[in-house]
Amino acid sequence: MRSVAMPYPIGTPGTPWGEAETAAWRARQAVRRSYRDEVLTPLQAGLPSALEVFSYGTLDYDRLGLGRYPLQAVRSRHWQADRPVVLVTGGVHGYETSGVQGALQWLRQDGARHAAAVNLLVLPCVSPWGYETINRWNPDALDPNRQFKPGSPAAEAALAMACVAAQAPQVALHIDLHETTDTDNSEFGPAKAARDGRPAEALPPIPDGFYLVGDTERPEPAFQQALVEAVRRVTHIAAPDAQGQILGEPQLVPGVILYAKRTLGLCGAMTTARYVTTTEVYPDSATATPAQCCAAQQAAVNAAIDFLQRQG
Fold first, then answer.
1. Which domain holds residue 94?
2. What's the angle, vertex CA 307, arms to CA 169 and CA 96, rounded to 5?
3. Nearest alpha-carbon partner for 235 in 279, 276, 282, 277
4. Where are the beta strands (DSSP E) in the chain?
5. I need a labelling partner for 211 at 20 to 30 A (CA). Which of 141, 174, 256, 286 fits?
6. What's the rounded mean pLDDT across residues 32-57?
7. pTM of the model
């Protein structure tokens, strides 16, 4: 059953937001955790020697009185041109905690093993303001995961794309770590409708469990299924609804749906990698702990790289 979104408390129904409404929305946001303590410090202190941390720019929100965020990525220290490149991104939606913490956990525990066989490039927290405020959007009320396109108005997406283009023009595998939370329907769906001047609409139920979002242009069902089977050992996989769908989309294979990533401007569209997928963990499940959510992200990345290596 679809839930009916409640009207949002900012803006005039039927009228898209202007600067005043965006400022009013921004004033409602508050820092709730520390990007420096929870992301930057672990990056500097806890990585194996096979990996190196580097800066790929600064997210500058001084114009809004919100300061600046140093952006850091991780790559294989001994990069070899004849090895395939694996790109891992997390925190494109900053509020999706295990996308960030799962990436950090994977780097600490599995990064060195994989760096011996492939070139790794990891952007663990693409949206640090979103991480600190537990927010889907950036301070301009833009969803970075709809802005991976030329001339992107979202600095988070533009800087990430520039980093990847400079470090790894050719990518073999890209896995983007996300969550689907109950607030997608309770907060972010209604906010988006209000921002765009549309009426609040009925929203599909949040899937209870892990699922993947592949790309319509590069579906690779065997690859997607290998990740689902690996994660199944860690947490439960989302079941389809009565129509056999997840979020209104038909399944490619159980636990996998497809989006047109390039058309939508999703993070997974920024490379031409043959193998591309977006993980979706469900942290609000009554049967999933934060540790399981991070372990699910870790299992998905490991399974993705293992699949790539089996292809030769």
1. 3-310
2. 70
3. 282
4. 3-4, 51-60, 68-76, 85-90, 119-123, 173-179, 202-203, 211-215, 245-246, 249-250, 256-259, 275-281
5. 141
6. 96
7. 0.96
Strands (E), 161-201: 173-179
Report CA-CA distances (Å) from 243 to 180, 203, 247. Answer: 20, 15, 10
Is-contact 269 77, C-beta < 8 A?
no
> Model confidence over 234-263: pLDDT tens digits?
999 999 999 999 999 999 999 999 999 999
Token match 């990698």: residue? Answer: 273
**Tokens at 189, concatenated:** 């769906």
Q: Among 167, 140, 134, 174, which residue's Cα sits nearest to residue 38?
A: 134
Average pLDDT over residues 156-175: 98
**Residue 122, Cβ neighbours under 10 Å: how many?**
25
* Adjacent-strand bridge partners of 123: 89
Distance of alpha carbon 7 from alpha carbon 60, whole angstroms: 32
Query: ∠ CA(23), CA(26), CA(32), 5° rounding?
Result: 165
State which H helix or E strand residue 288 sits in.
none
CA–CA distance, 84 with 305 (Å, rounded to integer):
10
- In the chain, the amino acid numbered 184 is D
Are 299 and 230 in contact, with CB atoms under 8 Å apart? yes
Query: CA 107 → CA 35, 55, 56, 88, 138, distances in Å?
Result: 17, 17, 18, 10, 26
Structural domains of the chain, count: 1
Tell me the per-residue pLDDT of 112-148, one tens digit each, with 9 for 90 and over.
999 999 999 999 999 999 999 999 999 999 999 999 9
7-23 burial, b at 16+ Cβ within 10 Å, e below that, comes to ebebbeeeeebeeebbe
Phi, psi (deg, nearest 5) at residue 180: -115, 120
CATH number of the structural domain spanning residue 256: 3.40.630.10
9 is written with which tokens? 């408390």
